[in-house]
Write a structure and sequence with these properties.
Layout lengths: L1 E2 L10 E2 L6 E4 L2 E4 H6 L1 E7 L6 H11 L24 H6 L6 E7 L2 E7 L7 H8 L4 E7 L6 H13 L3 E6 L8 H12 L2 E4 L1 E4 L7 E4 L4 E5 L11 E4 L4 H4 L4 H17 L5 H5 L3 E6 L8 H11 L6 E5 L13 E6 L7 E9 L8 E9 L2 E2 L2 E5 L4 E5 L2 E5 L2 E4 L2 E2 L4 E5 L9 E3 L16 E6 L6 H13 L4 E5 L8 E4 L3 H14 L4 E4 L4 E4 L6 H6 L7 E4 L5 E5 L2 H10 L16
Parallel strand pairs: 5-7, 5-8, 8-9, 9-15, 10-15
Antiparallel strand pairs: 1-4, 2-3, 3-4, 6-7, 11-12, 12-13, 13-14, 16-17, 18-19, 18-27, 19-26, 20-25, 21-22, 21-27, 23-24, 23-26, 28-30, 28-31, 29-30, 29-33, 32-34, 33-34
The structure holds guanosine-5'-triphosphate and magnesium ion.
């Protein structure tokens, strides 16, 4: 990964002027291409409860990043998993927010992002998908493809992110493995290539057959699955391994393998990278069966860091809802300028620090601590001095980072989700998707003595993108109207306001279910002139962009009919103030 061939210079952070792809790091020259090639940045996605966090833990165990896996069930005994750190997550046993874990394994640097499965938190998951180059889709083999998996799959498809599939929970009675492959092909419309195949089902699940090496891997369960599962490996005719299987299981496996061979699909890297085929691995995350094979198989075939298109913000030209952003240049990871974008902000990850971290995906060039970059939102230069690599809630100062890396920047209150940081101000990324809220509720502060904490906490949570807020037009009440993709987000806001800011709050249901953005250039007089259906109201988002709140879809459609010249948009348009 290092090269000492270019002329040696004084140690420091110097780019080689004759070979711009070489940088002097410590005392050796580092080639940017080598660094890029060793990065793998991926997310784990699925419907709730399929086992993402458990699998994440086990990948860390097999990746040598932790010695002892804390399984999710151990939460009951107050032992948190490494990736689920928030108080509420521990309490409810679900992931609410995504987590970044960076570790080295087998010459690779992995940036792994565990995501929440619940649909109310899909905003967080979708943002994470902008920061990765591939995903591992976890499926509960007893249930097959569940609704949220389908939605997430669609997002990956749209983004062209290659998908690897882990059929989890094979230690429980599962659907027929062939039927599971069939579901992938018919429900999701993606070709499925089984890299390995389960041997036995449910309590008789013993391991997997690796179709590429033609070896059986038979595992033993360990208590609580905290340690690596002992494994015995051998061919189909190896008596030692064969002796562990009863005749029925053995013959069934051999028969199914013959059917797969007969189906005749060959491994095709281009189809995997082109999002046409998903490699399928079977196993059990909680028992550690098949985890190593997944990790190694994934690393062998998963793509390295991809570049991103630089977008040029569109001009307001009368009809902003129809002004698409112009797509600018494709910025390759090897591009000499450093660039990256913020895809997530999280405050109070560590109660000891109580600060906020902006998570940046490095897209091109080299990041160096203390470097000065252009910040797209403020259009100012900022110095990035407090940079960290992340491992759940643990952080460590990082001096340099390369494309594919996810780093955490602390101490920049002006940073927002979606912002670009770069040494070349011409680069601007518009990667972060926006969501249309579907749940609305007033949030009251019943304790006037805690007004400051309430306000400060709410502002902070909104900056993190935990929730959106709207303010009603012509209203004397200053109570914020919270707007969420799903109602669990309200619960998170209330819980975090109390636990992190000491502010108790009270929710009051609001009558609207639909919000639509009005053109940004509408003046107050224009708003007065609108003909509003009964029960609807005009409000402003945080960027002071006008919106209309409707009680139902029908009412929104009625508005469209009666205000033909006023285009509505389900999302704030690109030109809207953020
Ligand atoms: N039997 C069995 N249970 C498993 C396996 N893997 C995970 N589980 C259990 O499934 C439940 C959910 O696991 P999690 O890892 O929290 O699932 P998740 O996908 O991260 O859930 P969310 O983040 O809330 O969407 C827990 O009770 C796990 O112990 C497995 O291989 N076999
Ligand atoms: Mg989870």
């Amino acid at each position: 990964m290092t090269d000492s061939s270019p002329a040696a210079g004084a140690p420091g952070k110097i780019q080689n002027l004759f070979r711009p792809d070489f940088w002097l790091c410590s005392t050796t020259w580092v080639n940017i291409t080598d660094e890029i090639q060793k990065r793998r940045t991926f997310a784990i996605i699925s419907h709730p409860d399929a086992g993402k966090t458990t699998l994440t833990e086990k990948l860390l165990l097999y990746g040598g990043a932790v010695q002892l896996a804390g399984s999710v069930t151990a939460r009951k005994n107050q032992r948190a998993t490494t990736s689920d750190w928030m108080e509420l997550e521990k309490k409810r046993g679900i992931s609410i927010s995504s987590t970044v874990l960076q570790f080295d394994y087998n010459g690779y640097r992995l940036n792994l992002l565990d995501t929440p499965g619940h649909k109310d938190f899909s905003e967080d998951t979708y943002r994470v998908l902008t920061a990765v180059d591939s995903v591992v889709m976890v499926i509960d083999s007893a249930k097959g493809i569940e609704p949220q998996t389908r939605k997430l799959f669609e997002v990956c498809r749209q983004r062209g992110v290659p998908i690897f599939t882990f059929m989890n929970k094979c230690d429980r009675p599962t659907k027929d493995p062939l039927a599971l492959l069939d579901e992938l092909e018919h429900v999701l419309g993606i070709g499925a290539f089984p890299v390995n195949w389960p041997i036995g089902n449910g309590s008789e699940f013993q391991g997997v057959y690796d179709r590429q090496t033609k070896l059986m891997h038979l595992f033993e369960r360990t208590v609580g699955g905290q340690y690596r599962a002992p494994v015995q490996v051998g061919g189909l005719d190896d008596p030692a391994v064969r002796g562990r299987l009863d005749d029925a299981t053995f013959h069934k496996t051999v028969e199914e393998l013959a059917m797969l061979e007969h189906a005749g699909h060959d491994w095709d890297d281009a189809a995997v990278l082109g999002d046409k085929t998903t490699p399928v691995f079977f196993g059990s995350a909680s028992n550690n069966f098949g985890v190593q094979l997944l990790l190694d198989g994934f690393l062998k075939h998963a793509p390295g860091p991809k570049g991103r298109h630089s977008a040029v913000a569109a001009q307001v030209n009368g009809d902003p809802s129809h002004a698409p952003p112009q797509v600018g240049d494709y910025i390759t990871p090897e591009h000499p300028a450093f660039s990256g974008f913020i895809f997530k902000i999280q405050a109070n990850m560590d109660p000891k620090h109580r600060d906020r971290i902006a998570f940046v995906r490095v897209c091109s060039g080299k990041f160096e601590r203390d470097m000065t970059v252009h910040h797209s939102r403020s259009e100012k230069k900022v110095r990035l001095s407090s940079s960290h690599k992340l491992f759940g809630n643990e952080r460590e100062t990082v001096d340099e980072a390369w494309p594919g890396d996810v780093i955490g920047l602390v101490g920049h209150n002006g940073f927002g989700i979606g912002d670009t940081l770069t040494t070349d101000p011409k680069i601007i990324y518009k990667e972060i998707p926006r969501f249309t809220p579907e749940a609305f509720s007033y949030l009251h502060n019943p304790n006037t003595a805690k007004f400051k904490q309430f306000r400060q906490g709410l502002e902070q949570l909104m900056q993190e993108g935990v929730i959106q807020a709207l303010y009603l037009r012509n209203s004397s009440v200053k109570t914020p109207l919270l707007a969420a993709v799903g109602p669990l987000q309200f619960e998170v806001v209330q819980f975090r306001l109390e636990s992190e800011y000491g502010a108790v709050s009270r929710l009051e249901a609001a009558p609207w279910t639909v919000v639509r953005w009005l053109p940004v250039d509408m003046k107050e007089d224009d708003l007065d002139a609108l003909s509003l259906p009964t029960g609807s109201r005009i409000a402003y988002d945080l960027g002071k962009n006008p919106v209309v709140l409707f009680t139902n879809e029908w009412s929104a459609e009625y508005f469209i009919k009666t205000n033909e010249r006023v285009p509505l948009s389900a999302l704030p348009v690109q030109t809207a103030r953020e």
